Amino acid sequence: MPALEYVGTDTAAHDLSVTSETSSSGGGGVVVDVSNTFPKGVTIYGRWTKINPASGLILAYIGD
Description:
Mean pLDDT: 81
Helix content: under 10%
Number of domains: 1
Strand content: under 5%
Low-confidence stretches: none
Radius of gyration: 14 Å
Number of strands: 0
Distance between the termini: 21 Å
Largest sheet: none
């Protein structure tokens, strides 16, 4: 079974080259870093081990 891929700050998930995509891993993924901005009110789903906002406030839901 292939490893699950999640958004991250070190490695891009789902970043296979064109025509190399599989049923469990796509292409075009990028690393989320300080150059990314998200609009107010957006919801981002993922498996996070740490949250460190550059500014402002966040509301985070923790669950299984």
